[in-house]
């Protein structure tokens, strides 16, 4: 069984999801463990299943690939993975987790690293005898992308392996270039798909197979998920932190709309957006001209100081907003009546709204 671990502060879930899709598309038995749960060939296993039971289940099903998304799971820090993918890193990880990540990297047979992330480069400093393959949009990376085109719900670019590398089976993979088309939203998915295609190559999955799989991938639910209803475009994102919200706002420039409506879950964001609202207003001035809707039960909002901060921030910055106690109330009253060419962005909701 081949083992692939995802570490970093951003991009782990998307990389795991895209790689799982490519492997499953190629009819390979794949198990995954991460924010999307414990899954076997994309089917979610019961939440209460013990890890050792899951391992036995994998053996019964002849699992060929195990994909693991690693946050602060100490049980995986000393595991020897066939490949570790180090995505973007910031300073949010504590010292113990960083040390655990370093042990993972030292024990891995190969490391695929985001070379555009200073934090990722910093993490491997001082570690010797590593087989590292770098990816990114800089010209020095082993793997990069060119001729990039990002549009509404779609990314296109040329994948370019600039130098030959060795596969997990020690076969030489030659320099190659291939056009990529993928129905995912957001510039960051260029990085994610480059990492996944390269990982697939390392395990002898040819690039043509990955290209075909990417043409039919669906977005992760509530993670930059774009949906159409008549002439209205919806984007759903659970927005775990400021960086994910910033990526969401950056994505708007690739979507056509006449009217922008931003719907915020007061109960789930827990002050994440409010703490950086001034920064977002400076970077994305169009927020002031959008329609803002705050959704959540008033009693819960008032009972939790963190959840009350957002209202204060909106008022302090002279931003008008409408309040709804329930998201269904918003959908029933306004969401589907906003007229054609509206973009409705739902931030912080952890379930599908309709």
TrEMBL record:
Q: Which PANTHER family does the entry link to? A: MUR LIGASE FAMILY MEMBER, UDP-N-ACETYLMURAMOYL-L-ALANYL-D-GLUTAMATE--2,6-DIAMINOPIMELATE LIGASE MURE HOMOLOG, CHLOROPLASTIC
Pfam families in alphabetical order: Mur_ligase_M
Instruction: Indicate what this protein is called per its UniProt record.
Output: UDP-N-acetylmuramyl tripeptide synthase
Return one GO MF term.
ATP binding
- Alphabetical list of SUPFAM superfamilies matching this protein: MurD-like peptide ligases, catalytic domain (SSF53623), MurD-like peptide ligases, peptide-binding domain (SSF53244)
| Record domain Mur ligase central: where | 8-199
Q: In which pathway does it act?
A: Cell wall biogenesis; peptidoglycan biosynthesis
Signal sequence, renumbered to the chain = none
């Amino acid at each position: 069984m081949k083992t692939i671990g995802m570490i970093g502060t951003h991009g782990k879930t998307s990389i795991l999801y895209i790689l799982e899709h490519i492997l499953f598309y190629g009819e390979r038995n794949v198990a995954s463990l991460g924010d999307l749960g414990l899954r076997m060939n994309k089917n979610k296993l019961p939440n209460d299943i013990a890890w050792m039971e899951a391992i036995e289940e994998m053996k019964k099903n002849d699992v060929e690939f195990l994909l693991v998304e690693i946050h602060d799971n100490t049980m995986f820090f000393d595991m020897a993975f066939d490949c570790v993918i180090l995505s973007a890193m910031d300073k949010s990880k504590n010292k113990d987790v960083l040390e655990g990540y370093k042990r993972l990297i030292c024990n891995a047979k190969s490391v695929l690293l985001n070379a555009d992330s200073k934090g990722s480069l910093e993490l491997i400093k001082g570690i010797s005898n590593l087989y590292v393959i770098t990816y990114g949009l800089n010209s020095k990376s082993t793997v990069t992308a060119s001729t990039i085109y990002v549009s509404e719900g779609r990314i296109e670019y040329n994948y370019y392996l600039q130098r030959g590398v060795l596969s997990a089976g020690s076969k030489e993979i030659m320099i190659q270039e291939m056009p990529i088309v993928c129905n995912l939203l957001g510039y960051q998915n260029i990085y994610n798909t480059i990492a996944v295609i390269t990982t697939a190559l390392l395990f002898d999955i040819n690039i043509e197979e990955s290209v075909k799989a990417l043409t039919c991938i669906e977005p992760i639910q509530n993670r930059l998920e774009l949906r159409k209803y008549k002439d209205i475009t919806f984007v759903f994102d659970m927005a775990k932190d400021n960086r994910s919200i910033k990526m969401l706002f950056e994505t708007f420039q690739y979507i056509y709309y006449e009217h922008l409506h931003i719907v915020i879950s007061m109960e789930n964001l827990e002050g994440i957006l409010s703490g950086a609202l001034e920064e977002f207003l400076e970077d994305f001035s169009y927020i002031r001209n959008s329609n803002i809707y705050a959704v959540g039960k008033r009693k819960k909002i008032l009972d939790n100081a963190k959840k009350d901060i957002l209202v204060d921030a909106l008022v302090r910055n002279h931003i008008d907003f409408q309040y709804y106690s329930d998201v269904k109330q918003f959908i029933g009253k306004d969401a589907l009546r906003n007229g054609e060419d509206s973009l409705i962005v739902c931030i912080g909701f952890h379930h599908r709204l309709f």
